[in-house]
Amino acid sequence: MQTRVLTAAGAAPTLAIAVNASGFQLAAAFAGWLGGRIVDGAGPRALYPAGAALTLAGLAVAFVLLRRDTTARYPSTVD
């Protein structure tokens, strides 16, 4: 991921890597907060379906972005 960020960064690679690392840290903090809220509200067994739902949502976003990236790189030449 760092390589992709550096490739897309252009004139500010240091800033791009800092923002990328900050995003990971924010995601880790959000995961801890969300896990705590789930355990407090529904109990520890609710973590499994919540984790599965977040994983599926992440996969869906990844596939959409992959398709968008592939379409942008290789546009259709069919008229």
Report what the structure shows.
With 79 residues, the chain is mainly α. Helices cover 82% and strands 0% of the residues. The protein contains 3 helices and no strands. It has helices spanning 2-9, 13-42, 47-73. Helix 1 packs across helix 2 (13-42). The longest helix has 30 residues, at 13-42. The relative contact order is 0.06. The mean pLDDT is 89.
Query: Given the C-alpha coordinates, what overall shape results?
Result: flat
- Rg value: 18 Å
| Approximate helicity band | over 70%
Q: Which blocks of ≥5 consecutive residues have pLDDT under 50?
A: none
Features:
mainly alpha
List the helices and strands and how they pair.
Blueprint: H1 2-9, H2 13-42, H3 47-73
Give a concise summary:
It is built from three helices and no strands. With 79 residues, the protein is mainly α.
